[in-house]
């Protein structure tokens, strides 16, 4: 969940609190997006609880905004896609869709030798 006080602090410190979205420059919109992505509050649990990341029938990985922020690889502090795939016990055939194979081999993945 987003901590609204933190979000408003980010937007206010950038001088955008009272500026119309339609009057913002591209860099200001990017700043707003970054402010949203960096304003998660790990202590606020959604009413229905956190959604777990999952693999669908096509073996595509789904990480929703309702998942715990630790899974949000796109934010500071979010774990890597590799860590999530390991946690989901995804097979190598699934994992290699998401990994750069020049840095990790099937043996590394199967032995959980995470290169970080």
What share of residues are in beta strands? Answer: under 5%
Count every beta strand, where a strand is a DSSP E run of 2 or more residues. 2
Helix-strand sequence: HHEEHHH
- Percent range of helical residues: 25-40%
Output the number of helix runs: 5
Strands ordered across the widest β-sheet = 1-2
* Structural class by sheet pairing and helices: mainly alpha
Q: Mean pLDDT, rounded to whole units?
A: 83
C-alpha-based Rg, rounded: 18 Å
Largest sheet: 2 strands, antiparallel
Number of domains: 2
Spatial shape: elongated
How many angstroms separate the termini?
28 Å
**Which blocks of ≥5 consecutive residues have pLDDT under 50?**
none
Verbal overview:
This protein is mainly α and 116 residues long. It folds into two domains: 4-37, no CATH class; 54-110, no CATH class. Helices cover 33% and strands 3% of the residues. It contains five helices and two strands, in the order ααββααα. The protein has helices spanning 4-13, 26-37, 81-87, 92-95, 106-110; strands at 54-55, 61-62. It has a two-stranded antiparallel ribbon. The longest helix is centred in the N-terminal third of the chain and has 12 residues, at 26-37. The protein starts with a helix and ends in a 6-residue tail after the last helix. The model has no long low-confidence stretch (mean pLDDT 83).
What are the SSEs and their pairings?
Blueprint (H helix, E strand, L loop, with lengths): L3 H10 L12 H12 L16 E2 L5 E2 L18 H7 L4 H4 L10 H5 L6
Antiparallel strand pairs: 1-2
């Amino acid at each position: 969940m987003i901590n609204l006080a933190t979000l408003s602090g980010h937007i206010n410190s950038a001088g955008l609190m009272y500026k119309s979205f339609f009057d913002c420059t591209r860099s200001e919109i990017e700043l707003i997006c970054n402010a949203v992505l960096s304003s998660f509050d790990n202590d606020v649990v959604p009413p229905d609880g956190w959604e777990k990341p999952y693999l669908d029938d096509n073996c595509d990985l789904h990480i929703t905004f309702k998942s715990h922020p630790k899974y949000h690889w796109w934010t500071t502090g979010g774990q890597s896609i590799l860590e999530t795939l390991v946690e989901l016990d995804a097979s190598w055939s699934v994992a290699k869709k998401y990994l750069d194979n020049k840095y990790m081999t099937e043996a590394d993945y199967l032995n959980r030798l995470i290169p970080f």
